[in-house]
Amino acid sequence: MKTVRSMVLVSSDPESQKRGSADIFAAFERLLNQYELTDEIQLTYASDIGKSAAVPLVMIYPEAVIYGPLEVSDIPHIVEEHLYKGRIVEEKIAPRYNLSGHVAWLQARKGTLPAENRVVLKNVGIIDPDSIDDYIVQDGYQALGLVFDMKPEDVIKTITDSGLQGRGGAGFPTGLKWSFVRKAAGTKKYVICNADESEPGTFKDRVILEGDPHRIIEAMLIAGYAVGADEGYIYIRGEYQLALQRLDAAIKQAEAYGFLGENIFGSGFNFHMHVHAGAGAYICGEETALIESLEGKRGEPRSRPPYPTTEGLWGKPTLINNVETLANIPPIIRNGAEWFRKMGTTSSPGTKVCTILGNVNEKGLIEVPMGITLREIITIYAKGMKDGNFKMAQTGGSGGSIIPSSLQDTPMDFESYRKAGVSLGSGALLICNDSVCIVDLAVVLTNFFRVESCGKCTPCRIGTKRAYDLLVGISKGQGKMEDLAELETLSHDLIALSNCGLGQTAGTPLKDMFNYFRAEVEAHIKLGICPCGICPMHD
Question: Is 225 within the bounds of a domain?
Answer without folding.
Answer: yes
